[in-house]
Amino acid sequence: MCFNHNHTVEAKPATAKATPELGRRKIIQGAVAGGALMASPALVSCATNAETGRKQFVGLAPGAGQLNSMAAASWAEMKQKTPTSTDPRYTNRLRNIGGRIAKGANRSNQKWDYAVFDTDTKNAFVLPGNRVGFYKGMMDFTDNDDQIAGIMGHEVGHVSGQHARERYSMQMASQVAVAGGTVIGASQMSKKCNRYTGAARNNCLQSANRNTQYLAQALGLGAMIGLVLPYSRKHEAESDLLGANYMQRAGYNPYEAVKLWEKMAANNPSRQPQFLSTHPDPAWRARNLDEYIRRQEKLGSQGFKNIRT
User: Fold this and answer.
1) What would you report as the CA-atom Rg of the chain, rounded to the nearest whole angstrom?
2) How would residue 19 be classed by pLDDT, with cut points 50, 70 and 90?
3) pLDDT cut 70: percent of the chain above it
4) Per-residue pLDDT tens over the stretch 242-281
5) Which residues fall within 8 angstroms of residue 262, CB to CB, at 6 or more apart?
6) Could you tell me whether strands 55-57 and 113-117 are parallel, antiparallel, or unpaired per DSSP bridges?
7) How confident is the model at residue 8 (pLDDT cuts 50, 70, 90)?
8) Full DSSP string of the chain
9) For residue 232, what pLDDT is reported?
10) Nearest residue to 164 (alpha-carbon basis) of 201, 207, 132
11) So what's the pLDDT on residue 39?
12) pLDDT for residue 63
C-alpha cells in the first residue's frame, strides 16, 4: 500500500434498482469478470495525485478506456430504470452550475454529462467519464445555487482526486487478501484432519469447512471496516475540501456548503456508527469544512489552492 505522512483530510436512495452504489459495484464486478485487473509488480504501484499532493494506490484499477465504457453502461442503465427530469428549471440550473464549477476546477475543457433523476431521493453522485447525477429531491432540499454548487464541487472533487480508481484498487486488494487468508486458513484446518480416518475424518473436514466459511466472513468484515470504509470516508472528506476550493474560484460562497451539511445533520439525526459508514458524519463534515475555509481565508491570495495547507 501507499503511505504518505502528509494526509489530509446520507440519505439513502428511494429504490435499490438504480443507485450510484449499484452502478459503481457493477463497474467493479465487470472489471473482475473481464480480467482487467492484473496483479503484476508493474501495476501494483503508487502515484502522486497532482491535485491533492497525496500518494494513491491505483495500480489495480482498470484502464481509463475500460472504466469509462463500464461507467457508460451503468449510466445508461440508471437512466433507463429511473426517470430523468426534462424541466429546464432543474436541468438548466444544474448545467449552469456544473459549468461554473468545472471552470473553477480547471476542467472546463472536458466533456461533462449532467442528469437530474426525477425522484425525491436526497443524493448526488459522479461516475467515471464526468457523468454527474443529481436527484430532484437533493436539489429541492438545498436553499440556493451556492449549496448546489457545494455538492457539485464535491462530486468534481471525486474526479480530481481519482477516487474511483483508488477505491477499485483498494477493494480488489482487500478481496485478494481475504481470499489468500481464507485459502491459507482452510489448508491449515484441513491438515489437522489427516490424523483421523473414516467417519471421524469426515466430521473433522465438515467442521473445517464451516470454520473456513466463518474465517472468510471475519476476514471480509475486517477488511471492510479496517480498509475499505476508512478510505471511502477519506475520499468524501477530501472531496469536501476540493469542492470548497472550486466553489471559491467559481464565485460561490463556500460557507453555504457548511450550512448544507449542518442541514443534512439536522435532517438525519439517527445514523449508524461512523466506523460502519461509507460517509463521515454530516455534523463532522460541517465542522471540518468550516475550519478549512477559515484557514484558507487567512492565507489571502494563497488560499483555496492546496488542501494540505
Assistant:
1) 22
2) low
3) 80
4) 999 999 999 999 999 999 999 999 987 666 565 456 678 9
5) 282, 283, 286
6) unpaired
7) very low
8) ----TT----PPPS-SSS-HHHHHHHHHHHHHHTT-----TTTS-EEE-TTT--EEE-TTSPPHHHHHHHHHHHHHHHHHHS-B---HHHHHHHHHHHHHHHHHTT-TTS--EEEEE-S----EEEETTTEEEEEHHHHHH-SSHHHHHHHHHHHHHHHHTTHHHHHHHHHHHHHHHHHHHHHHHHHHHHHGGGG--HHHHHHHHHHHHHHHHHHHHHHHHHHIIIIIHHHHHHHHHHHHHHHHHHHHHTT--THHHHHHHHHHHHH------GGG-SS--HHHHHHHHHHHHHHHHHTGGG-SS-TT-
9) 80
10) 132
11) 40
12) 78
Distance CA 282, CA 269 (A): 9
